[in-house]
C-alpha cells in the first residue's frame, strides 16, 4: 500500500540553527500538507502544496513540493523555542478522500 | 467557535470492555476521519466518512466500527477492547476530500489494561 516516509525521526538543534525535515511518498501525490503538533496537543494545519515544484514561504518556514510530486520538505530558518513540536507531512491522492501521514519529525530546540 | 469536539478526553478500560468515542464538528464539513497515534508511528487512519451516509475503512480498521450519525457527528466504537488499542485517538474533519485542510479535535487518550 501507499507509504509516506519522513526523516529524520528526531532532531535537536541549538536556538538559531536551521532545521529541515523530508517527506517521501511511494506513489505520486495530488497534494501534500504539513502539520505541526505541540507536545500534548493536536495536529494543526500549516500549509498545502499542490503544484509540481511549488515553493511556499511562511515567515521563517519554507515548504517545497518535488517536481515528481513524490517528495516534499519543510525548512525552518533560525529556529526559536516556539518551533518545538512534531512536524508531519500528509499526502493526498487524487480521487480519494484519504490522507496518508508521514511518521513525523520531532524537533527540540535548545536555548 | 468550537471546531471539532471529542469526548471523552481520557478513558481507562479493562480488556474486553466496549466503549464509544464521540466526535462532533460545527463547521458544516462533509468529510470526517478517525486516526490513532502511537509513539513513533505517526497518525494512522482507522475509518473515514467522505460524506453523510458513507463510511470506509482506512489503514487499521480491525477491532473498530464507526457510525456517521448525521453530518455533524462521527463515532468510533471498540466492541471488545484489547491492550493493543491503547493509543491517542484523533477525530478530524475537512470541507470535502483530501485536498482540504484537516481540522483536528483535542484527542482521546485511551488506556486498556
Textual characterization of the structure:
The complex is a heterodimer of chains A (111) and B (113). Chain A has strands at residues 4-7, 10-14, 19-25, 31-37, 44-49, 55-58, 61-65, 71-76, 85-92, 99-101, 105-110. By secondary structure, chain A is mainly β. In chain A, strands 2, 4, 5, 9, 10 and 11 form a 6-stranded mixed beta sheet that branches. The model of chain A has no long low-confidence stretch (mean pLDDT 95). Chain B contains no helices and 11 strands. In chain B, strands 2, 4, 5, 6, 9, 10 and 11 form a 7-stranded mixed beta sheet that branches. In chain B, 38% of the residues are buried. The model of chain B has no long low-confidence stretch (mean pLDDT 94). The chains are: A mainly beta (111), B mainly beta (113). The interface between A and B is medium-sized, with 27 and 27 residues.
SSE layout and pairing:
The complex is a heterodimer of chains A (111) and B (113).
Chain A: E1 4-7, E2 10-14, E3 19-25, E4 31-37, E5 44-49, E6 55-58, E7 61-65, E8 71-76, E9 85-92, E10 99-101, E11 105-110
Parallel strand pairs in A: 2-11
Antiparallel strand pairs in A: 1-3, 3-8, 4-5, 4-9, 6-7, 7-8, 9-10, 9-11
Chain B: E1 4-7, E2 10-13, E3 19-25, E4 31-38, E5 42-49, E6 56-57, E7 64-68, E8 74-78, E9 87-94, E10 103-104, E11 108-112
Parallel strand pairs in B: 2-11
Antiparallel strand pairs in B: 1-3, 3-8, 4-5, 4-9, 5-6, 7-8, 9-10, 9-11
Amino acid at each position: 500500500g501507499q507509504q509516506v516516509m519522513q526523516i529524520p525521526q528526531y532532531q535537536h538543534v541549538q536556538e538559531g540553527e536551521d532545521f529541515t525535515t523530508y517527506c517521501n511518498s511511494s506513489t505520486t501525490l495530488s497534494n501534500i500538507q504539513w502539520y505541526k503538533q505541540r507536545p500534548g496537543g493536536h495536529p494543526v494545519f500549516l500549509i498545502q502544496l499542490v503544484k509540481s515544484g511549488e515553493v511556499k514561504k511562511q515567515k521563517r518556514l519554507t515548504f517545497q513540493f518535488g517536481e515528481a510530486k513524490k517528495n516534499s520538505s519543510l525548512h525552518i530558518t533560525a529556529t526559536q523555542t516556539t518551533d518545538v513540536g512534531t512536524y508531519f507531512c500528509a499526502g493526498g491522492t487524487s480521487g480519494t478522500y484519504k490522507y496518508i501521514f508521514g511518521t513525523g519529525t520531532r524537533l527540540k530546540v535548545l536555548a | 467557535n468550537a471546531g471539532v469536539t471529542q469526548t471523552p478526553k481520557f478513558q481507562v478500560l479493562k480488556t474486553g470492555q466496549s466503549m464509544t468515542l464521540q466526535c462532533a464538528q460545527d463547521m458544516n464539513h462533509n468529510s470526517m476521519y478517525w486516526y490513532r497515534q502511537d509513539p513513533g508511528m505517526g497518525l494512522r487512519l482507522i475509518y473515514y466518512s467522505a460524506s453523510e451516509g458513507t463510511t470506509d475503512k482506512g489503514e487499521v480498521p480491525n477491532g473498530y466500527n464507526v457510525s456517521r450519525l448525521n453530518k455533524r457527528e462521527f463515532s468510533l466504537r471498540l466492541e471488545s477492547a484489547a491492550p493493543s488499542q491503547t493509543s491517542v485517538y484523533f477525530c478530524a474533519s475537512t470541507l470535502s476530500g483530501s485536498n482540504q485542510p484537516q481540522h483536528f479535535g483535542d484527542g482521546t487518550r485511551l488506556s486498556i489494561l
